[in-house]
Amino acid sequence: MFRIGKYDFNYSRRVFMEKAAKGTAGAGVLCSSWPLIAQGASIKKAYPDELISIEMQTKGKVKVGDIISKDNVQYVKHLCDPFLYRQITEQGRKIKIRATTLDVTEKMYSRPFWEATMRGQAAGGAKFDADGNLITVGGKKWTGGSPFPDPKTALEATINLTLAWGRADMTQYAVRETEINAAGDIDYRYDFSWMELMVQSRTDGQVLRNQNDLLRQQVVWFTSTEDVAGTSFLSTWYYDQRKMPDLYGYLPQFRRVRQFPANQRFEPLVPGATWFLTDAWAAGDPMLTWGDYKVVEIRPALMAAGGNWKGKRPNWEKGRHGGPKGNTFFDTEFELAPEVMVVEAKPTGFPRAPAGFKRMWIDLRNSMYCADIRYDRNGKEWVNFETGSGQLTDGDLTLYYEGTKDPIWSWNYVLSADIQTGRMTQIEHAEKVAGGIKNRWNVPAEEVYDKYFTQKAVASFGKI
């Protein structure tokens, strides 16, 4: 096959502008990237060299291994989201550049999720019904994996995020959260367990306990500090993306489980936090409770798509730097993603929502976001829920799903930055946290359902 060695920047820019103007994309510039990904091949044939080489993108000013700081960020300004650029220029943030991942099939998916995705595509793929909900081409509810691995519209890209947050049937994450104020001082530290159990859209294609109306159960359980230990929340998601999840919480000081209103999704769960439930996975609310979806632009961008799991460090803790006290940002690695879809949506189902709209920066290689920027009602930048993700690999150390040689894919960190108050929430994927909480992936559902994912279980957390 003849491959043109070089295209100027305007060629790719024109292609991306045309896609965005049509509101329908499909990844790839020289050819579609999806057939290459589906075959397990490199995506190199789908893009000009300038979109897969940071050296060529910056005309030799930046190379793999370089540290981007305020001294050289001008060379990658066009690749930064608004928050990343301001953090580097104004707050002393630095990021390390890693090579662009070209073997998407092996590096940017977990094998169970990938296999479920391919089964779904082999069966004909997905579509939206008259109500806007996702169904198979045969009219049934989606059976697991990514429904649109080559998303062509804003809705297709968003439902990929909404339907499978952690891209596993069951996850229990050990999480450490640190709240840093504008002066760089630590106001709060929390340990908690974040648990997700898919009822439908599972990689095994099953429906748990014949609960055909549900999508997932999700639990947050705080184990530290002492003033919040035992505080827990259960969110029950319906498959119908027009319906709000049922949110129940247990507050130890009241010693009872109570139901919270829908607008609780726009309030912090604990003091000092800059993130809300609506921010989770850039899709913390059912897709159809937001509206006016549109593709703002398609562009290359720097994304935290790998290299950020620090499994060799004690408790997987990342180094820190920047800000007034040198502790505001994690040490992170970013890579040049050749094609990123910026999707905008408005909270149409929340009349009193403090947010005006959000913009999700979605990597079209695997439909995972990195930046999720929340804007206030005046259209001003408010919070960026930045998430790094990738395989749990650190040099020669790799974590595998139990009983397999399949590397675990997961989120690695979150930096939730409130640009209006100067506050930063650091969320670390830890090895273990207070309460003996450790990570678990794809544990059999019947082993954990009654123990964690019911109102009775939520109440019991306050007594442990």
TrEMBL record:
Gene3D superfamilies: Lipoprotein localisation LolA/LolB/LppX. It comes from the Bacteria. InterPro entries: DUF1329. This is DUF1329 domain-containing protein. The lineage of its organism: Bacteria, Pseudomonadati, Pseudomonadota, Gammaproteobacteria, Nevskiales.
